[in-house]
Design a protein that fits this description.
Oligomer: single chain
Strand order of the largest sheet: 3-2-1-4-7
Mean pLDDT: 87
Strand content: 15-25%
Number of strands: 7
Number of helices: 9
Radius of gyration: 21 Å
Distance between the termini: 46 Å
Order of helices and strands: EEEHHHHEHHEEEHHH
Length: 254
């Protein structure tokens, strides 16, 4: 009987958004960067980045259910621009003039993100769908969900990315958050008082050439996760952090 020797490859997609503010319900996406990485070799095999042209609000419920609104109410809502807070623009160094000149339509960007994720799936089967990777990943996932909703691609998003449905029936993508890995790695280091990307990168000797540029942040995030992964793979069976207390049934009611 022939055995299936096809190599199964797990992949991740490093992701970073620059935005017009902190609230994904109110503020715009201004830049997105993605990098696809193989978990076995830690090879980055595809990249994507784009600025996003200014866009207006869209009802977050229209994709899921019909909402009773007058035609004029709907028009006013869709014509209202998303928020572009000056403090957020200054933080990323992105200007409205840059977005007007180089930004792509958010619907086009969303379609390209779906295509990128589809191409980043290297093995068949639901367990091999790409996992998102980010520094403070829930922040970026909120803006990714906004983008997919705006483009009407929620169903495609749920099909392509690894994830599960929560108690309320909402799709929650799976992710690896380097912010929490940093807290695990440096919780006993009194010199580490912040887990910001640039500070952790410096602590690990990872280069971060252009902080707050989406593509540079993704590169640093994957490099940081690569350092953690390398350390895990080179433990050589050491178990210094494992609790070795003998297991008993004393604390369980039978």
């Amino acid at each position: 009987m022939a055995t299936n020797t096809e190599q199964k490859i797990f992949t991740g997609i490093g992701m970073d958004f620059e935005t017009g503010g902190l609230d994904c319900r109110e503020c715009a996406c201004t830049q997105i960067a993605l990098q696809a990485v193989r978990f076995d070799t830690w090879q980055v095999f595809d990249r994507y980045q784009s600025y996003i042209a200014p866009y207006c609000r869209q009802n977050a419920d229209t994709v899921h259910r019909k909402v009773l609104r007058t035609r004029h109410e709907q028009a006013r809502m869709e014509q209202a621009p998303m928020k572009y807070e000056q403090a957020a623009l200054d933080y990323s160094g992105i200007t409205m003039e840059l977005l007007d000149a180089k930004g792509a339509d958010i619907r086009k960007v969303a379609e390209e993100v779906i295509g990128f994720a589809r191409g980043s799936t290297l093995s068949k089967g639901s367990r091999y769908k790409p996992v998102l990777i980010g520094q403070n990943a829930p922040f970026d996932i909120g803006f990714l969900q906004q983008m997919m909703n705006h483009a009407g691609l929620v169903t495609e998003f749920e099909k392509i990315f690894a994830g599960t449905r929560d108690y309320y029936g909402n799709f929650q993508p799976h992710y690896i958050d380097t912010l929490f890995l940093g807290r695990l790695a440096f919780a006993d280091d009194t010199e580490v008082t912040s887990y910001k990307l640039e500070l952790v990168a410096s602590r690990l000797g990872v280069e971060l050439d252009d902080a707050h540029d989406a593509d540079a942040d993704v590169t640093a995030t994957l490099d940081i996760l690569g350092v953690y992964t390398s350390r895990l793979r080179n433990m050589e069976g050491k178990s210094g952090m494992i609790q070795k207390k003998e297991k008993t049934r004393n604390h369980f009611k039978i």
